[in-house]
Amino acid sequence: MPTQSKSLHLPFGEDKNAPWYGKDILSVKQFAREDLEYVFGVAHEMRGMVERVGTFDLLKGKILANLFYEPSTRTSSSFTAAMERLGGSVIPINEVKYSSVSKGESLPDTIRTLECYADVIVLRHPETGSAAIAAKAAKKPVINAGDGVGEHPTQALLDAFTIFEELGVGEIDGMTVTMLGDLKYGRTVHSLARLLSLYNVKINYVSPEILRMPQEVMEEVAAKGIPQAEFSTLQEVLPQTDVLYVTRVQQERFENQKDYEKVKGAYVIDPQVMQAAKQEMIVMHPLPRVGEISPEFDEDPRAAYFRQMEYGLYVRMALLAMVLGKA
Ligand code: ASP
């Protein structure tokens, strides 16, 4: 459920009674099933608007501070595009080394600074829990765009939206979702497993022994009554899989690079492997990929990972409109 609203100065035309007005988005744990229906409904409308008119003035005059302490292509540029498609503007801080962060400024002070100039802050940071620290310091809404190995809630929302749009609304229930690759350090799967536990799904985890899904996440999912099982080979579960969610081995999170060398290339999806899968299923990936899906598979209609990026634009448009009281 939404957390408590922050008290914002209320300019004309904003609905302070809108359910997500002034809220931070820090974790998927804030979302109940009906909240997802709401987000996906708004995202679906955003998709229609972009297809019909491209850009429109829902957030005209609003400013987003896009603060990235870790590399990003899709999340950063889709938040920028989302704000601009809604008629707002963006302060981009991608290279924190050129900001006062390189002078030793603390995260709370950087956040307090940016909120003097912006109406909403999107933050990516290498430390788990950093988004919550930023949100505590801020009077304006903070959106977590990835906090270390913690969570990546907007990615999980766009992933779930992708499943709905690709496989048909109402059909998540009864599905088998298989998560493959680096389940230990992959924050996207931590968020997605939690989010999917709001539906009646079955979740398979396929990973090398040293990259298993954290116990904490599995316990939370189990508490919702969701069947989960762990495997070391994909062959065991691929034929029953409706959604195959592939992840990159997160090299930058390994303490010992020798361990990375042992597991990098552990699984590769290619047309031959996919012969064992259903025809009516999708393959997703938060991207970037570094060899775990062969480009030879890209033309297969089941390859949903490029379409998934586009859905991210609509979900992020919806989230910005929601926290700024315009949806
Ligand atoms: N882009 C995603 C993330 O930021 C996935 C990845 O980096 O592998 O978590």
**Secondary structure category:** alpha/beta
The largest sheet, given as strand count, sense and whether it forms a barrel, is:
5 strands, parallel
For the largest beta sheet, what order do the strands appear in spatially? 7-6-5-8-9
CATH class of the largest domain: Alpha Beta
Count of beta strands: 9
Q: Would you tell me which CATH topology of the largest domain applies?
A: Rossmann fold
Q: CATH H-level name of the largest domain... which superfamily?
A: Aspartate/ornithine carbamoyltransferase
Bound molecules: aspartic acid
Concise summary:
This protein is α/β, with parallel strands linked by helices and 327 residues long.
Description:
- The chain has two domains: about 30-150 and about 310-325, 3-Layer(aba) Sandwich (Rossmann fold), CATH 3.40.50; about 155-310, Aspartate/ornithine carbamoyltransferase (Rossmann fold, 3-Layer(aba) Sandwich).
- It has helices at about 35-55, 75-85, 105-115, 130-135, 155-165, 185-195, 215-225, 255-265, 305-325, and strands at about 65-70, 90-95, 120-125, 140-145, 175-180, 200-205, 230, 245, 280-285.
- The strands form two sheets. A five-stranded parallel beta sheet has the order 7-6-5-8-9. It has a four-stranded parallel beta sheet with strand order 2-1-3-4, with helices on both faces.
- The protein contains nine helices and nine strands.
- It is globular and about 55 Å long.
- Helix content is about 35%, strand content about 15%.
- The longest helix is centred in the first third of the chain and has 21 residues, at about 35-55.
- Helix 2 (about 75-85) packs across helix 9.
- The protein has about 325 residues and is an alpha/beta fold.
- Aspartic acid binds near residues 152 and 248.
